[in-house]
Design a protein that fits this description.
alpha+beta, four-stranded mixed β-sheet, 37% strand
């Protein structure tokens, strides 16, 4: 897949790779999450051996919508949910924040907003 784009939206001007959903007006964070395909959460589960025993110190990050594996992390890793990342930006910039683009790369392993 060009540019490793899994899902995204953009406002008016098509990106170089030509992928994603075009919208005419920059959306709020709630709409941006849906348009970008980021309306899912990360859940963490134990990493297990083939015999079903947990491997200490590690977790697997999974997308709740489809069970896709996003990565193996140490148990010190703290997930920042997509909704929390958008909320942080909303709180930082204040009322009326809109987004020009957002999406997921590499099967959801990386997300962005702008």
């Amino acid at each position: 897949m060009p540019a490793n784009v899994e899902s995204m939206f953009y406002v008016r001007e098509k990106p170089w790779h030509g992928l994603g959903t075009m919208v005419e007006n920059a959306p709020s964070s709630i709409d941006a999450l849906t348009l970008a395909g980021l309306d899912w959460s990360v859940i963490q589960k134990d990493v297990l051996t083939q015999d079903g025993d947990p491997i200490p110190g590690f977790k697997v990050n999974l997308r709740d919508s489809d069970g896709a594996v996003l990565g193996i992390v140490s148990d010190r890793y703290r997930v920042v949910q997509n909704t929390d990342a958008f909320r942080f930006t909303d709180d930082l910039l204040g009322e009326g924040v809109t987004y020009e683009t957002a999406g997921a790369l590499q099967g959801g392993r990386k997300v962005w907003m702008g």
